[in-house]
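Tip: read the tokens left to right.
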């Protein structure tokens, strides 16, 4: 064997060893706590809000809960993350924030508080980017859930009046005043509305409720714009049945909470509604001593559930799990600490999954009450090199989570037809793109920009000649 062949064999051997070492590497995981400095107490609500809508300012992450500081900054129950650090929203609130949403470009917060930014607002307030303002005279008790339906803001909780109008546990704001949704929600014990979403053009409300608009509904109901209706026979079991979370996944309504049956079917704390009947998601959740599902969202085409459970579909998950449409899987080692931890808030921000709740570690990393889960993939950078990054930091073309730089998905310089070589077909394409120095690239001419300086000129032609035939 000659020296050149020996070097080639050794190089292939080193390459294969590298591939073997990298193959089992996890491409999704919980980031270190310093990547999202924690709060001083429980995070109950998460949302994203863009301060200037379609303008140049980036979207921001907002969290609400029972805390006074975030990342060491005084914020008073609500804070915004600008991608680098936590910032306050005015002087914050005087008590706990339970719910967040965006309505008419403004951030809406609901909760136990009665003032926001020093302004009397009674359990609900709006932030326009500069100051907090009231929505009428607010509610006479707590707001636990918020959403938008038919161009109106919907609030749910344990209040009985909104803006002085009788609105049992649920109300709508049209931009100027509060109004009821029929006769509202009732129950045999003091009822609450804890979850809201929109499905099939109807408003869905969940909580510990027995009737909506006088119709028996068993903890979940739908509003079609004029009247309340049940979703099958609703939820039961679990000792004290309750719907805590709602979302939509793969065209189906997903409900999570403290219940063991839905529509008479055993589901174990989470169920899906296909517009006709309730169905389980695998064998559902379990845990000791708690098993409730408290939060739901969708991330990377998978359903994410958070709560107090420790197993999902028989798999150890530790309070957060993902459903791929067929089975439950863990997100690393989940979250833990202190006593009886839980995840009660989920959202997606900047390509990452954000979890909030009552916990101090995520994936073994210190993460006080909030954490970031992210997935890496192949990024074709502007210079055509391939790097494994997160979607958030990729400055070129991201090929999706779990994608790899081996084989390299990035187009080779000069290879216009992506057939693995630089030949006469590529030369013809280069000739059509040769516009000259500092001239804008034509459509499809990127492979001809050999030196990645933004044009196709004689320098690129010279480099193309050297690559020709390879």
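Filled-in amino acids:
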């Amino acid at each position: 064997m000659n020296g050149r062949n020996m070097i080639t064999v050794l190089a292939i051997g080193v390459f294969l060893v590298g591939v073997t070492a990298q193959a089992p590497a996890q491409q999704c995981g919980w980031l270190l706590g310093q990547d999202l400095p924690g709060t001083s107490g429980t995070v109950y609500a998460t949302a994203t809000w863009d301060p200037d809508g379609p303008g140049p300012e980036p979207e921001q992450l907002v969290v609400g809960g029972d805390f006074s500081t975030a990342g060491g900054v005084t914020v008073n129950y609500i804070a915004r993350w600008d991608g680098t650090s936590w910032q306050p929203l005015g002087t914050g609130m005087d008590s706990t924030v339970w719910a967040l949403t965006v309505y008419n470009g403004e951030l809406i917060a609901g909760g136990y508080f009665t003032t926001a930014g020093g302004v009397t607002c009674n359990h609900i307030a709006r932030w326009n980017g500069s100051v907090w303002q009231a929505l009428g005279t607010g509610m006479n008790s707590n707001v636990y859930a918020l959403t938008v339906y038919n161009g109106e803001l919907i609030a749910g909780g344990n209040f009985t009046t909104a803006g002085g109008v009788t609105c049992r546990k649920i109300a709508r704001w049209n931009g100027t005043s509060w109004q009821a949704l029929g006769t509202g929600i009732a129950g045999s014990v003091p009822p609450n509305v804890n979850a809201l979403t929109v499905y099939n053009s109807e408003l869905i409300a969940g909580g510990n409720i027995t009737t909506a608009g006088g119709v028996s509904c068993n903890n979940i109901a739908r509003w079609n714009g004029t009247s309340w209706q049940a979703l099958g026979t609703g939820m039961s079991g679990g000792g004290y049945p309750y719907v805590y979370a709602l979302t939509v996944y793969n065209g189906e309504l997903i409900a999570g909470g403290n219940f063991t049956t839905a529509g008479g079917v055993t589901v174990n704390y989470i169920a899906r509604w296909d517009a006709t009947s309730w169905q389980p998601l695998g064998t559902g959740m379990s845990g000791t001593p708690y098993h409730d599902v408290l939060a739901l969202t969708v991330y990377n085409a998978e359903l994410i559930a958070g709560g107090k459970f420790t197993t999902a579909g028989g798999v150890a998950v530790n309070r957060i799990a993902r459903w791929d449409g067929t089975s439950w899987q863990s997100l690393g080692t989940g979250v833990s600490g202190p006593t009886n931890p839980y995840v009660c808030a989920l959202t997606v921000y900047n390509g990452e999954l954000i979890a909030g709740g009552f916990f101090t570690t995520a994936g073994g990393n210190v993460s006080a009450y909030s954490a970031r889960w992210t997935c890496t993939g192949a990024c074709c950078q502007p210079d055509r090199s391939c790097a494994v990054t997160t979607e958030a930091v990729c400055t070129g073309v991201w090929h999706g989570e779990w994608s790899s730089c081996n084989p390299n998905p990035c187009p080779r310089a000069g290879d216009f037809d992506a057939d693995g070589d630089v030949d006469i077909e590529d030369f013809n394409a280069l000739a059509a793109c040769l516009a000259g120095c500092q001239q804008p690239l034509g459509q499809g001419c990127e492979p001809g920009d050999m030196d990645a300086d933004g044009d196709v000129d004689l320098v690129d032609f010279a480099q193309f000649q050297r690559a020709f035939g390879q």
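The two ends are 25 Å apart (CA to CA). The chain has three domains: 31-374, 375-410, 413-470.
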